[in-house]
Write a structure and sequence with these properties.
This protein is α/β, with parallel strands linked by helices. About 40% of the residues lie in helices and about 20% in strands. It is elongated and about 95 Å long. The relative contact order is 0.13.
Amino acid sequence: MSRLFMFEKPLGMRDTLPDLYETKSRVRTEIGEEMKKWGYQFIETPTLEYYETIGAASAILDQQLFKLLDQQGHTLVLRPDMTAPIARVAASKLLQEDLPLRLAYSANVYRAQQREGGRPAEFEQIGVECIADETISADAEVIALMISTLTAAGLNNFQISVGHIGFVQQLFLQILGTEERANALTKFLYEKNYVGYREHVKNLALSSIDKQRLLEFLKLRGGEEVIEWALKIIENEQGKEAILQLKQLWDIVVDYGEESRLKFDLTLVSHMSYYTGILFEVYADQVGFPIGNGGRYNFLLQKFGKDTAATGFALRLDRLLEALGQIEKTAPTHCIIFSEERRQEAFKVAKEKRAKGIRTVLQDINGVKNVDACTSQYEDIVYLIGKAGRGQA
């Protein structure tokens, strides 16, 4: 193993410098305030969780988990997502009356990377979970809320792709017959390898009609018209029910007035294996990956002893900032440079400025080796040096 340089960081870890931190803070605050307006309450969960509980319940691959041992010999993980920890809290402490819960969070999650490739191993998610509400209204609510939060953050150009994992599963099982064969084909969708998908379908031992249905499936993208197309392809009742759920979702989103943000993509699948129904991703200009995703997960809470439905979404704050495109400068700061004999006066002036909401730095003249370099970073400089009355620069 080569020796690490003093400035080296673990693989996938990032520093956040002041301007980026200020931008993240603003965006986080605006999104959080919007979530609160919709009645969602923020909670926190530990950074460390037990591997046997959260590690096992999470949909993140085992090789992506950061693991360590505590002093009692238990294997711990750095939380790889927030949905599983919130499911644990909801099932154990909050779902006493089986009433719908609306919970929100803003937290860092950790997923190990095998190579750099620009992929962070630590990133911040901000999102919501709507628990114990199995209606399509709840799915529509979290989508409408996601639209509202992105707009509040200042993002205008984005689009949401919506699918239904149940439809994909039922169509593939109906045509291919086994879960193994269905999963092999689904993998091409997850990788968005549509060329590989087509080649795989051509080589399957199927009738020409079934092959054509699987190829036509790739065209199920667009607006409300996709509903009718999908109903012509699917034959079993469970698959049709999935499409009717999407039709109901569309009608509710229309009532929210947000249908222009929505496009159906029935080829959409996710690496998050706990999704059971409607799922979605949000894309923005200039960003090659989804900046957020979500969906329905009706069985996850069973792992924590509670049989109830849930849906939610998570936004990737780093990708959202990339979509916004501009890192803000930190707010203007004033500086008061003082000498010992005018220190008390300087403290009083600084206190008055801060009371007005002005960021103010106090700087002892003896700590400044280069006054010009020091003062160039501030909007306004006040010199309180020597005898009173020397004035302001």
